[in-house]
Amino acid sequence: MVKLLVINPGATSTKFGVFDEERCIFKKAISHSEQDLSRFATVFDQYPYRLKLIEDELQRQQILLEDFCAVVARGGLLKPIQGGTYIVNHKMLQDLKNAVRGELASNLGAVMAYNIASRQGIPAFIVDPVSVDEMLPVARISGFSELERVSLFHALNHKAVARKAAAQLGKVYEKANFIVAHLGTGISVAAHRKGRVIDVNDCKDEGAFSLDRCGSLPAYQLVRLCYSGKYTFEQLKQKIMTDGGMYSYLGTRDIREVEKMAVEGNEKAKLLIEALTYQVAKDTGSQ
Protein backbone atom coordinates (compact mmCIF):
# COMPACT_ATOMS: atom_id res chain seq x y z
CA MET A 1 0.00 0.00 0.00
CA VAL A 2 1.34 3.44 -1.00
CA LYS A 3 -0.09 5.98 1.43
CA LEU A 4 0.49 9.66 0.62
CA LEU A 5 -0.14 12.89 2.50
CA VAL A 6 -0.92 15.70 0.05
CA ILE A 7 -0.81 19.37 1.13
CA ASN A 8 -2.12 22.40 -0.77
CA PRO A 9 -1.73 25.74 1.06
CA GLY A 10 -3.67 28.64 -0.45
CA ALA A 11 -4.02 32.31 0.39
CA THR A 12 -7.09 31.81 2.59
CA SER A 13 -7.12 28.06 3.23
CA THR A 14 -5.01 24.98 3.87
CA LYS A 15 -6.23 21.89 2.06
CA PHE A 16 -4.79 18.43 2.65
CA GLY A 17 -5.72 14.83 1.99
CA VAL A 18 -4.63 11.26 2.49
CA PHE A 19 -4.40 8.96 -0.52
CA ASP A 20 -4.09 5.21 -0.83
CA GLU A 21 -2.51 4.99 -4.29
CA GLU A 22 -4.93 7.18 -6.32
CA ARG A 23 -7.89 6.75 -3.97
CA CYS A 24 -8.61 9.63 -1.58
CA ILE A 25 -9.46 8.21 1.85
CA PHE A 26 -9.57 11.52 3.75
CA LYS A 27 -9.54 15.20 2.86
CA LYS A 28 -9.96 18.45 4.75
CA ALA A 29 -10.08 22.14 3.89
CA ILE A 30 -9.40 24.59 6.70
CA SER A 31 -10.36 28.21 6.00
CA HIS A 32 -8.30 31.05 7.43
CA SER A 33 -10.00 34.34 8.18
CA GLU A 34 -8.25 37.68 7.72
CA GLN A 35 -8.07 37.86 11.51
CA ASP A 36 -6.36 34.43 11.68
CA LEU A 37 -3.56 35.51 9.34
CA SER A 38 -3.17 39.21 10.21
CA ARG A 39 -1.13 38.37 13.31
CA PHE A 40 1.72 37.05 11.14
CA ALA A 41 4.25 39.57 9.81
CA THR A 42 5.09 37.46 6.74
CA VAL A 43 3.55 34.53 4.90
CA PHE A 44 6.43 32.30 5.99
CA ASP A 45 5.61 33.06 9.63
CA GLN A 46 2.32 31.17 9.11
CA TYR A 47 4.22 27.93 8.64
CA PRO A 48 4.09 26.56 12.27
CA TYR A 49 0.43 27.60 12.60
CA ARG A 50 -0.68 25.81 9.43
CA LEU A 51 1.50 22.77 10.13
CA LYS A 52 -0.05 22.32 13.56
CA LEU A 53 -3.56 22.48 12.07
CA ILE A 54 -2.68 19.63 9.71
CA GLU A 55 -1.05 17.46 12.37
CA ASP A 56 -3.86 18.07 14.89
CA GLU A 57 -6.50 17.04 12.35
CA LEU A 58 -4.60 13.91 11.35
CA GLN A 59 -4.33 12.99 15.02
CA ARG A 60 -8.08 13.52 15.50
CA GLN A 61 -8.68 11.18 12.56
CA GLN A 62 -6.24 8.64 14.07
CA ILE A 63 -4.07 8.81 10.95
CA LEU A 64 -0.47 8.03 11.85
CA LEU A 65 2.39 9.95 10.25
CA GLU A 66 4.54 6.82 10.27
CA ASP A 67 2.11 5.12 7.85
CA PHE A 68 2.97 7.51 5.02
CA CYS A 69 5.39 6.58 2.22
CA ALA A 70 5.85 10.18 1.05
CA VAL A 71 4.49 13.71 1.48
CA VAL A 72 3.54 15.71 -1.61
CA ALA A 73 2.81 19.44 -1.73
CA ARG A 74 1.93 22.30 -3.99
CA GLY A 75 5.08 24.14 -5.05
CA GLY A 76 5.84 27.81 -4.51
CA LEU A 77 7.70 30.72 -6.07
CA LEU A 78 10.89 29.01 -7.20
CA LYS A 79 13.20 29.71 -10.11
CA PRO A 80 11.63 29.06 -13.54
CA ILE A 81 11.33 25.30 -14.14
CA GLN A 82 9.47 22.88 -16.41
CA GLY A 83 6.26 21.28 -15.21
CA GLY A 84 6.70 18.02 -13.31
CA THR A 85 7.45 16.46 -9.94
CA TYR A 86 10.50 17.51 -7.93
CA ILE A 87 12.03 16.23 -4.70
CA VAL A 88 12.30 18.87 -1.96
CA ASN A 89 15.89 19.75 -1.04
CA HIS A 90 17.64 22.27 1.22
CA LYS A 91 18.34 24.77 -1.58
CA MET A 92 14.66 24.82 -2.48
CA LEU A 93 13.69 25.36 1.17
CA GLN A 94 16.18 28.22 1.52
CA ASP A 95 14.84 30.00 -1.57
CA LEU A 96 11.28 29.67 -0.29
CA LYS A 97 12.17 30.88 3.20
CA ASN A 98 13.99 33.91 1.79
CA ALA A 99 11.13 34.57 -0.65
CA VAL A 100 13.65 34.94 -3.49
CA ARG A 101 10.85 35.51 -6.03
CA GLY A 102 8.24 36.81 -3.61
CA GLU A 103 5.84 35.67 -0.92
CA LEU A 104 2.92 33.36 -1.60
CA ALA A 105 1.05 30.88 0.58
CA SER A 106 2.12 28.12 -1.83
CA ASN A 107 5.71 28.69 -0.62
CA LEU A 108 4.68 26.91 2.58
CA GLY A 109 3.83 23.62 0.82
CA ALA A 110 7.37 22.31 0.38
CA VAL A 111 8.38 23.48 3.86
CA MET A 112 5.51 21.69 5.61
CA ALA A 113 5.96 18.58 3.47
CA TYR A 114 9.68 18.43 4.26
CA ASN A 115 9.10 18.96 8.00
CA ILE A 116 6.75 15.98 8.22
CA ALA A 117 8.69 13.79 5.79
CA SER A 118 12.13 14.32 7.35
CA ARG A 119 10.84 13.27 10.77
CA GLN A 120 9.55 10.03 9.25
CA GLY A 121 12.56 9.35 7.05
CA ILE A 122 10.50 9.52 3.85
CA PRO A 123 10.79 11.75 0.75
CA ALA A 124 8.94 15.02 0.20
CA PHE A 125 7.93 16.20 -3.28
CA ILE A 126 6.34 19.19 -4.97
CA VAL A 127 4.35 19.00 -8.20
CA ASP A 128 3.91 21.70 -10.88
CA PRO A 129 4.88 24.73 -8.77
CA VAL A 130 3.62 28.23 -9.58
CA SER A 131 6.98 28.99 -11.22
CA VAL A 132 6.46 26.49 -14.06
CA ASP A 133 7.77 28.26 -17.17
CA GLU A 134 7.08 26.76 -20.60
CA MET A 135 6.20 30.00 -22.41
CA LEU A 136 7.06 30.54 -26.04
CA PRO A 137 9.67 33.25 -26.77
CA VAL A 138 7.06 35.29 -28.65
CA ALA A 139 4.80 35.28 -25.56
CA ARG A 140 7.51 36.89 -23.41
CA ILE A 141 7.57 40.15 -25.38
CA SER A 142 5.94 42.92 -23.32
CA GLY A 143 6.34 45.87 -25.71
CA PHE A 144 8.98 47.53 -23.50
CA SER A 145 12.56 46.30 -23.87
CA GLU A 146 13.40 46.59 -20.15
CA LEU A 147 10.46 44.43 -19.04
CA GLU A 148 9.71 40.81 -20.00
CA ARG A 149 6.46 38.95 -19.41
CA VAL A 150 7.00 36.10 -16.95
CA SER A 151 5.29 32.80 -16.24
CA LEU A 152 3.89 32.66 -12.70
CA PHE A 153 0.50 30.99 -12.38
CA HIS A 154 -1.60 28.26 -10.77
CA ALA A 155 0.24 25.51 -12.65
CA LEU A 156 -0.80 22.65 -10.37
CA ASN A 157 -4.51 23.25 -10.82
CA HIS A 158 -4.16 24.17 -14.49
CA LYS A 159 -2.40 20.96 -15.44
CA ALA A 160 -4.54 18.76 -13.18
CA VAL A 161 -7.77 20.13 -14.68
CA ALA A 162 -6.40 19.85 -18.23
CA ARG A 163 -5.41 16.21 -17.62
CA LYS A 164 -8.86 15.47 -16.19
CA ALA A 165 -10.59 17.14 -19.14
CA ALA A 166 -8.38 15.26 -21.59
CA ALA A 167 -9.27 11.94 -19.95
CA GLN A 168 -12.99 12.76 -20.11
CA LEU A 169 -12.62 13.51 -23.82
CA GLY A 170 -10.69 10.29 -24.41
CA LYS A 171 -7.51 12.23 -25.16
CA VAL A 172 -4.00 12.47 -23.69
CA TYR A 173 -3.00 15.84 -22.19
CA GLU A 174 0.37 15.75 -23.93
CA LYS A 175 -1.38 15.44 -27.32
CA ALA A 176 -4.24 17.89 -26.80
CA ASN A 177 -4.77 21.67 -26.71
CA PHE A 178 -6.76 23.53 -24.05
CA ILE A 179 -7.50 26.98 -22.68
CA VAL A 180 -7.73 26.76 -18.88
CA ALA A 181 -8.95 29.48 -16.51
CA HIS A 182 -8.21 29.34 -12.78
CA LEU A 183 -10.50 31.52 -10.67
CA GLY A 184 -9.34 31.95 -7.09
CA THR A 185 -7.68 34.59 -4.96
CA GLY A 186 -5.70 35.20 -8.13
CA ILE A 187 -6.94 34.55 -11.67
CA SER A 188 -4.83 33.03 -14.44
CA VAL A 189 -5.84 32.05 -17.97
CA ALA A 190 -3.44 29.90 -20.01
CA ALA A 191 -3.02 28.31 -23.41
CA HIS A 192 -1.96 24.65 -23.10
CA ARG A 193 -0.42 23.11 -26.21
CA LYS A 194 0.41 19.42 -26.12
CA GLY A 195 1.23 19.33 -22.41
CA ARG A 196 3.02 22.67 -22.23
CA VAL A 197 1.69 26.05 -21.07
CA ILE A 198 2.84 28.24 -23.93
CA ASP A 199 1.23 31.50 -22.75
CA VAL A 200 -0.33 32.68 -19.49
CA ASN A 201 -0.96 35.90 -17.60
CA ASP A 202 1.09 36.45 -14.46
CA CYS A 203 -1.76 37.05 -12.01
CA LYS A 204 0.43 39.44 -10.00
CA ASP A 205 0.90 41.74 -12.99
CA GLU A 206 -1.81 41.31 -15.57
CA GLY A 207 -5.12 39.78 -16.52
CA ALA A 208 -8.50 40.02 -14.82
CA PHE A 209 -8.82 41.55 -11.37
CA SER A 210 -9.75 39.10 -8.62
CA LEU A 211 -10.97 39.21 -5.03
CA ASP A 212 -7.99 41.21 -3.77
CA ARG A 213 -5.61 41.64 -6.73
CA CYS A 214 -5.81 44.42 -9.27
CA GLY A 215 -4.79 42.53 -12.39
CA SER A 216 -3.95 44.71 -15.40
CA LEU A 217 -3.98 48.44 -14.66
CA PRO A 218 -3.79 51.51 -16.93
CA ALA A 219 0.00 51.94 -17.18
CA TYR A 220 0.18 55.73 -17.47
CA GLN A 221 -2.25 56.31 -14.60
CA LEU A 222 -0.32 53.83 -12.44
CA VAL A 223 3.01 55.59 -13.14
CA ARG A 224 1.48 58.94 -12.16
CA LEU A 225 0.13 57.43 -8.95
CA CYS A 226 3.55 55.94 -8.13
CA TYR A 227 5.15 59.39 -8.32
CA SER A 228 2.30 61.30 -6.68
CA GLY A 229 3.83 61.00 -3.21
CA LYS A 230 0.56 59.55 -1.96
CA TYR A 231 1.96 56.07 -1.26
CA THR A 232 5.26 54.42 -0.42
CA PHE A 233 6.45 51.49 -2.53
CA GLU A 234 5.32 48.97 0.11
CA GLN A 235 1.92 50.62 0.50
CA LEU A 236 1.25 50.59 -3.23
CA LYS A 237 2.47 46.99 -3.56
CA GLN A 238 -0.01 45.99 -0.85
CA LYS A 239 -2.82 47.84 -2.61
CA ILE A 240 -2.08 46.06 -5.88
CA MET A 241 -1.44 42.57 -4.46
CA THR A 242 -3.67 42.18 -1.39
CA ASP A 243 -5.97 45.21 -1.08
CA GLY A 244 -7.04 45.50 -4.73
CA GLY A 245 -9.76 43.85 -6.77
CA MET A 246 -13.18 43.36 -5.19
CA TYR A 247 -11.76 44.29 -1.80
CA SER A 248 -10.80 47.80 -2.94
CA TYR A 249 -14.40 48.47 -4.03
CA LEU A 250 -16.47 46.62 -1.43
CA GLY A 251 -14.19 45.89 1.54
CA THR A 252 -14.60 42.11 1.34
CA ARG A 253 -12.51 39.27 -0.10
CA ASP A 254 -15.39 36.79 0.11
CA ILE A 255 -17.18 36.26 -3.21
CA ARG A 256 -20.16 34.86 -1.31
CA GLU A 257 -20.62 38.20 0.42
CA VAL A 258 -20.36 40.00 -2.93
CA GLU A 259 -23.02 37.72 -4.43
CA LYS A 260 -25.25 38.33 -1.38
CA MET A 261 -24.85 42.09 -1.82
CA ALA A 262 -25.82 41.79 -5.47
CA VAL A 263 -28.90 39.70 -4.67
CA GLU A 264 -29.94 42.30 -2.09
CA GLY A 265 -29.78 45.04 -4.71
CA ASN A 266 -26.29 46.51 -4.35
CA GLU A 267 -25.69 47.92 -7.84
CA LYS A 268 -21.92 48.24 -7.40
CA ALA A 269 -21.68 44.56 -6.43
CA LYS A 270 -23.71 43.61 -9.50
CA LEU A 271 -21.46 45.67 -11.75
CA LEU A 272 -18.27 44.20 -10.26
CA ILE A 273 -19.47 40.62 -10.75
CA GLU A 274 -20.28 41.49 -14.37
CA ALA A 275 -16.89 43.18 -14.80
CA LEU A 276 -15.02 40.18 -13.39
CA THR A 277 -16.90 37.80 -15.69
CA TYR A 278 -16.25 40.13 -18.64
CA GLN A 279 -12.51 40.35 -17.97
CA VAL A 280 -12.10 36.57 -17.58
CA ALA A 281 -14.03 36.01 -20.82
CA LYS A 282 -11.84 38.58 -22.58
CA ASP A 283 -8.65 36.88 -21.34
CA THR A 284 -9.99 33.50 -22.42
CA GLY A 285 -10.78 34.78 -25.90
CA SER A 286 -7.34 36.33 -26.25
CA GLN A 287 -5.65 32.95 -25.73
Structure description:
This protein is α+β, with helices and mostly antiparallel strands. The protein folds into two domains: 3-127, 2-Layer Sandwich (Nucleotidyltransferase, domain 5); 137-286, ATPase, nucleotide binding domain (Nucleotidyltransferase, domain 5, 2-Layer Sandwich). The chain is built from ten helices and eleven strands. Helix 3 (90-97) crosses helix 4 and helix 9 (255-263) crosses helix 10. It is globular, with a radius of gyration of 20 Å.
Fraction of residues in helices?
Answer: 25-40%
Could you give the count of β-strands? 11
Provide the residue-averaged pLDDT.
94
Determine the number of helices (DSSP H or I, runs of at least 4 residues): 10
| Form type | globular
Order of helices and strands: EEEHHEEHHEEEHEEEHHHHH
* Low-pLDDT windows of residues: none
- Write out the strand line-up for the largest beta sheet, numbering strands in chain order: 3-2-1-4-6-5
Query: By CATH's scheme, which homologous superfamily of the largest domain applies?
Result: ATPase, nucleotide binding domain
Radius of gyration: 20 Å
CATH topology-level fold name of the largest domain:
Nucleotidyltransferase, domain 5
**So, CATH architecture of the largest domain?**
2-Layer Sandwich
Strand content: 15-25%
State the CATH class of the largest domain.
Alpha Beta
How would you characterize the largest beta sheet?
6 strands, mixed
Whole-number count of domains? 2
Structural class: alpha+beta
